[in-house]
Each structure stands twice: as C-alpha cells, then as structure tokens.
C-alpha cells in the first residue's frame, strides 16, 4: 500500500515538473518567435534597422520643364551604445569641421527624450543633417575610425528657376504633431510644408524601405537578417506635373516686381492654373537647408508679408470687374433687356444719394455700359432688381436671389483649389443686412453693384470669373496640378459648374468686354494677332485705389483668362491692363514683340512706394501682447471683485435685517421657532458669474463697434439733388443711339457711401453665419491694412 502511494506521488510530481517545463517552453517560444517577430527584437542589440529613404517625386511645368528636383544630401547617424569609449572626439570634430562644444551640445540634445522622444542607445539617431557633397566625401574617408557612426543618404529639394515659390511650397523637417498624426514619420524626417509640396505630400513622398541587419556581440555588422527576407525596398514618390507655364510665371513675377498684389491666369476649358503670382515673392532656394529657419523668421516680420499667397488668401473689393457678373444677373432675371437704357448724370443720382461716374454718352445700354464702365447703369440695375415687388415678394427674397447668382459664379465660398489656405471672400445676403442695419433698402446696399461695399473676392475668384465669361457660363474648379504620375486627376477638377446666368447674358457681357478693348477703358491693351476681351477695375480704397484687370483671349476660342490685382496701383488702366495684356500675349504668342518686351521692362521698373511702418520685432510684439493680456485680465478681475464685494455687502445687510426681525419676533414669542432660511451662497454665485460674462461681452462689442465707427467715419460726398428724378423705370427711351463718347481717361472712381449706411451704423453685432463673415472681412481688412 505504502509503495503504491509513493509511486503515485512520484508520478504526480513528475507530471507537475513536466507541466512547468512545457509552460516555460511555450512562454519562451511566444516571446522569442511568435510575438511580432523581428519588430520587437530589432530594437535590441542584435539587430540594426536601416531606413532607406525613397526619392521624392519631381515637379515639372505644363511643358515638362523641370521646376523641382532632388539633390543628394547626407545625414550622419550615431548608435551611442557602439560609440561609447571608442571615439577620439577631437579627431572626429576635426573631420566634420565642428567644435567640441557643438559636439557635446548635439549629444546632449540627442539623448534628451523631451527633444528626441524616439531615443534609444541601440538604434541609429540623427547626429547631423544635410551634409553637403564636399563635406561628405572628406568625412567618408575617415568614417572607419569612428565606430558607431553611419551615413544615411537622402535627398533635398533643389529648384531649377527661382519662381513660383507660393505654388511649389517647400519641404522641411517634421514637427512633433506631424509625427503624432501619421506614423509614417519619425523625428528628423522631411515633409511638405506649403503649396503643392504639402497638398500632394502623400503622392510625392513615396514609401520608405527598410534593411534589417544582424550584429554580433561586439556590435559588428554580420549581414542581413534571414537574407533580407524582411527587408523592404523603398518606392520612389510620384512625379507631379503642374498646369503652370514657367515662362508665363516668370514674366508675371517680373511685371509685379515692386508692387503688392497678385496675378492668376487660368485655362478656361480645363480650369488649369497657368500662372499664379503673389507679390512680393521670394526665392524658393532660400528655404532649403540650415538657413530655412532664419529666412522664414525674417519673412514673417516683413510688413509686405512675402509668405502670404495673395492670389488665394488676399480678399479684395473686385471693383468694376464685378459689373460683368451684375450684367449677367440683371439680364438673366429680365431686369434689363437689350432695349434698356439708364441715365447717367455724371453718376447715379437718386433720393439724395450720388454715386459718381465719369462723362460719357447717356442714357446708356448694357454693352456700352460695360465698355465705359458706367457706375450709374449698374446702380440702377440693382435698384430695380431689389425693389421689384412683382417678381420678388420681399426685399429679402430679391437679395437672396442676387446672392444665389453670385454663389453660382464661385463667389462667397472657397473654390476648392488644390493649395492650402484658400480664403472664401465675402458675398452678403439678406440676413447679413438684417443684422447689420436696423432698417435697410436697396439704396443702403447699392455700392455692391459696382464691386464695393461689403463685397470681397480673392484674385483667384476674379480670374475664375474671367474663365466663366470666356466659357459663356460655366467654370471648372481651378487647380494647379495637371497630372500625377500613375494616377487619375481628382473628379472635382473635371466637372463643369454652370452658373445661374444664361448663355445669352454672357454673350452680352463678352460684347461689352470686346468693345472695352476697341475703344473703352482697356484701349491700351496689347493684343498682336488675336482678339482680346477685357474689363478694368478701380477698387476704392482708403489709400490710393487698387488697379484691377480681368480679361481673356482669343475671344472665340479662349486659351487664357486672367486677373491682375495691384494694391494701390491707381486706375485699372495704369497697371492692371498692361500687366494682364502682356501676359496674355506671352502665353498665346509664346513671346513678346520687341516693343512689348520694352514695355514689360518699363512696367517691371515702375515700383509703387508703400507707407510701411517699421516692422515690429518679435520681442516687441510679444511684449505688447503680454501687456495687453495682463491689462485685460487685471481689469476683468477688478470688476469681478467689485461686484463680489457689492453682493457680499448686500447679503450681509439682508442677513442683518433678517436677524433683527427674527430677534424682534423672538422677543414677542419666546418659544420654539422654525429657523429662518438664509439664501445659501451657491444660489447667488452662478448668477453673478453670468452677469460678469455679460459685462465682458458688452465691453468687447463696444470695442468692435468703435472700430466699425472709425471705418464709417469717411463722410460720403452727397451732391445736391438733381431736379429731374427719373421716376420708376426709365426704360424704353427712344432708340437714340448713345454717343459713345469714350475718353481715354477712365475715371471710374465711384464716390459712394449711401447716407443710410452711415446713419444706421451696425450697432448690433451680426449673429451666427454673418458674424463669421464679418469677422473674415475684418480680418481681411486687417491684413490689407497691415500690408500697407
Ligand atoms: Zn456713367
């Protein structure tokens, strides 16, 4: 019996022992092989993961001319575990041409996990980046003497010509947030920061490769892990072709030299952007390598704001170029017809309101009103549209129909170009005016009919208006990239957007723009060998007016539509027309005639002086900011404290009064009384807070209103009422052919600002959507202000 027990116990014990061993073996297996295999062990001593960077895609212009390519650069990497104790620091510093202090500094930063979160003693860490070819070859010869150091080849961007910096964008080291958002990136990697480089980052960057190498106990490389079974080859990035014509772009940048503003050219049939100039610009080559940070910093302090892409971020009053869109709206809605003629007594005169115009034949019909850019015609058109109670039930309805036309033309919202940072401009609607004015009527908003007042467009939107007219009523969303290697173009860049305007209305506008070139405001436009349609604009401004031009050519088979916007450039004919028409000539003829080449040089040399203030240094602006912030906090704290004190005093007073009353009562009935309830503190506090908040808001609103008041201070020039007021529609005038007295000097300076607008100052802040719009507008005004 005993023997049998012993036998049994032995069996149990050995079974347990075997069980434990088996479990251990399974655990070991799981740890060593099954769990994520090499990935985890690659971080250990035995493996070395070597990243192979793909070459970034190149960027070419529409004719295949190279704009951006790659140049090899070398990073020095270090595995600190291998380096320790073996390095002759002095010799190393000499080989790399750095100081010992620099060496120590770099090592400290590299090991600091706050600055370099991916630090590990066993993996390669970036020691020095972007070594030039020359420095690299000197260092490479001595590399074998510095154990633990490796060279990693990668490429940096290089630019064939110093043009199109805003479109191309740039490439720089990833930020902490880039690494967190996309696990493709590791600290020290490169990423597109602006322009096409950023928008097409995923196409351009390619796919990284990796080599897994095996090391022995001494850290020496033994070869590839499992013969490279787990290695991945890098895939190069996709090449990108732009719609930009490099020669046209270069001419545009030359013509805009010394001026603030933008030029956008579009191929109407495809929506491809042919040129996009934002002035001032900068040399994209300055944004490569170690100096990038310094250049970028300098440019952020420059009051001319060279980093701002005005073509898509500048929001400007479109001035008279906007009249074309008005003509389309009035005509399609049946507000005006071929036989409509409007009077112009040196402008629009009605109910004490005067909007100035230059002298020309009147009454005037649609086509000549475009070619002479008559303010009166478009004011009357809008007036009759907004006060037409047969067609539109209310003023608000009429206003919203107008808004719908504008939105259908691509205004008021982002067009959706393939570049980061596009702004939407501003198209007011009925709700906006309901909020801005207590009461408003068609005259309160009349200035929007001539592209002033609340209306704002980006130069891209003005160019797109030109493309839409060239297409007689449709546009394709403008885009800068024409083709991505091995990929189809995004569908949204192929769709046609029809506006609400009829084809017939667009034909009228085209006739007006052609006549404008023949003998109207664009008479000085050059167009050797092809037909041209154009419209000038002179956008009112507190300083000197802005010079604007919009046009396209050839008239019947349009190849190019263009918008030119020159800040403080004066009349449209002064800068807008020559710059726009020279660029059209360059694109259509592929070159300029000798005479026009000389004209181009003259325009290039004509610089506009802007009253820039001394740029505020970063420390100055930071200090000013912090002073402002401290003052705001101090004031609001003071108010809160005052209110608290007041409330506290009242509370004490009340409590005392109650106590007194209670004691009186007690004296009268000295028996068990229910306790008198005193208002708990909690109930008072939230109320107080709400009040305080309200107070702060009012303060802010007051300040905001102050600003708007300042802007409205400019008094409108109201001339005396002309005795003969045209009552109702002055349509169907005898078909007396309006003399087309077109003078060379196109004075299109409207001297507007309706009285009502000044009287009914927007005391209340517009709410919701319109509030956002106003903010946008204020911002844009600020940017323009700051730019001056
Ligand atoms: Zn006129």
TrEMBL record:
It is a single-pass membrane protein. Its EC number is 3.4.16.4. Residues 639-788 are annotated as: Disordered. One of its GO terms (biological process) is regulation of cell shape. Its main location: membrane. Gene3D superfamilies: DD-peptidase/beta-lactamase superfamily, Penicillin-binding protein 2a (Domain 2), Penicillin-binding protein 2a, domain 3. It is found in: Cell membrane; Membrane. Keywords: Carboxypeptidase, Cell inner membrane, Cell membrane, Cell shape, Cell wall biogenesis/degradation, Hydrolase, Membrane, Peptidoglycan synthesis, Protease, Transmembrane, Transmembrane helix. The keyword Hydrolase applies. Residues 54-223 form the Penicillin-binding protein dimerisation domain. Pfam families: PBP_dimer, Transpeptidase. GO terms for cellular component: plasma membrane. One of its GO terms (molecular function) is serine-type D-Ala-D-Ala carboxypeptidase activity. It comes from the Bacteria. Residues 261-570 form the Penicillin-binding protein transpeptidase domain. The chain crosses the membrane at residues 12-34. This is Penicillin-binding protein. The lineage of its organism: Bacteria, Pseudomonadati, Bacteroidota, Bacteroidia, Bacteroidales.
């Amino acid at each position: 019996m005993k023997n049998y027990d012993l036998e049994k116990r032995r069996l149990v014990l050995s079974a347990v022992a075997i069980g434990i061993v088996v479990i251990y073996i399974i655990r070991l297996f799981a740890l060593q092989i099954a769990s994520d295999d090499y990935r985890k062990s690659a971080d250990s001593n035995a493996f070395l993961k070597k990243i192979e960077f793909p070459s970034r895609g190149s960027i070419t212009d529409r004719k295949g001319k190279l704009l951006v390519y790659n140049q090899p650069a070398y990073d020095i990497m270090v595995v600190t575990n291998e380096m320790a104790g073996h390095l002759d620091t002095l010799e190393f510093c000499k080989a790399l041409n750095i100081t010992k202090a620099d060496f120590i500094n770099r090592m400290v930063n590299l090991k600091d996990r706050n600055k370099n979160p991916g630090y590990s003693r066993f993996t390669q860490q970036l020691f020095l980046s972007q070594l030039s070819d020359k420095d690299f070859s000197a260092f490479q010869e001595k590399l074998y003497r510095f154990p633990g150091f490796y060279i990693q080849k990668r490429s940096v961007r290089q630019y064939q010509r110093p043009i199109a910096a805003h479109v191309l964008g740039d490439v720089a080291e990833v930020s902490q947030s880039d690494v967190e958002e996309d696990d493709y990136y590791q600290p020290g990697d490169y990423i597109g920061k602006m322009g096409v480089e950023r928008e097409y980052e995923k196409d351009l960057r390619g796919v990284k490769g990796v080599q897994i190498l095996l090391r022995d106990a001494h850290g020496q490389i033994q070869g590839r892990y499992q013969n490279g079974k787990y290695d991945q080859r890098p895939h190069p990035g996709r090449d990108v072709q732009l719609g930009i014509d490099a020669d046209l772009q270069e001419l545009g940048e030359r013509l805009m030299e010394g001026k603030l503003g933008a030029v956008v050219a579009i191929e109407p049939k495809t929506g491809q952007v042919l040129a996009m100039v934002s002035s001032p610009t900068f040399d994209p080559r300055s944004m490569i390598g170690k100096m990038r940070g310094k250049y970028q910093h300098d440019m952020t302090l420059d009051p001319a704001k060279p980093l701002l892409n005005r073509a898509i971020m500048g929001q400007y009053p479109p001035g008279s170029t906007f009249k074309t869109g008005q003509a389309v709206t009035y005509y399609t809605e049946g507000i005006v017809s071929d036989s409509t003629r409007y009077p112009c007594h040196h402008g629009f005169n009605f109910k004490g309101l005067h909007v100035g115009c230059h002298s020309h034949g009147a009454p005037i019909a649609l086509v000549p009103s475009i070619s002479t850019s008559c303010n009166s015609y478009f004011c009357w058109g809008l007036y009759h549209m907004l006060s037409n109670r047969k067609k539109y039930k209310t003023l608000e309805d009429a206003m919203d129909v107008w808004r719908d036309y504008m939105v259908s033309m691509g205004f008021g919202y982002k067009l959706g170009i393939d570049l980061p940072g596009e702004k939407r401009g501003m198209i007011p609607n009925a709700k906006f005016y309901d909020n801005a004015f207590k009461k408003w009527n068609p005259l309160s908003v009349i200035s929007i009919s001539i592209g002033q007042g609340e209306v704002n467009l980006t130069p891209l939107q003005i160019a797109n208006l030109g493309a839409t007219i060239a297409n007689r009523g449709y546009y394709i969303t403008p885009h800068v990239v024409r083709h991505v290697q091995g990929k189809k173009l995004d569908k949204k860049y192929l769709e046609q957007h029809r506006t609400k305007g009829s084809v017939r209305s667009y034909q009228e506008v085209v006739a007006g723009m052609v006549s404008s070139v023949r003998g109207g405001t664009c008479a000085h436009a050059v167009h050797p060998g092809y037909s041209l349609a154009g419209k000038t604009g002179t956008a009112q401004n507190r300083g000197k007016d802005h010079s604007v031009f919009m046009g396209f050519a050839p008239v019947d088979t349009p190849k190019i539509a263009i918008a030119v916007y020159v800040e403080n450039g004066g009349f449209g004919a002064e800068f807008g027309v020559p710059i726009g028409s020279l660029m059209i000539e360059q694109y259509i003829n592929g070159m300029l005639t000798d005479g026009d080449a000389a004209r181009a040089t003259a325009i290039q040399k004509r610089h506009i002086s802007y009253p820039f203030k001394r740029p505020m240094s970063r420390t100055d602006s930071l200090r000013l900011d912090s002073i402002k912030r401290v003052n705001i906090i101090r004031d609001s704290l003071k108010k809160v404290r005052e209110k608290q004190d007041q409330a506290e005093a009242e509370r004490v007073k009340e409590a005392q009064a109650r106590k007194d009353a209670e004691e009186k009562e007690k004296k009268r009935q000295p028996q068990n009384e229910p306790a008198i309830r005193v208002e708990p503190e909690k109930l008072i506090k939230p109320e107080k807070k709400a009040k305080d908040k309200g107070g702060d808001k009012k303060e802010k609103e007051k300040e905001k209103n102050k600003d708007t008041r300042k802007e409205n201070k400019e008094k409108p020039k109201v001339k005396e009422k002309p005795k003969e007021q045209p009552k109702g529609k002055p349509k169907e005038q005898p078909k007396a052919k309006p003399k087309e007295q077109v003078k060379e000097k196109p004075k299109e300076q409207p001297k507007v600002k309706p009285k009502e607008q000044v009287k009914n100052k927007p005391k209340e802040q517009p709410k919701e959507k319109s509030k956002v719009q106003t903010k946008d507008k204020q911002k844009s005004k600020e940017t323009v202000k700051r730019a001056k």
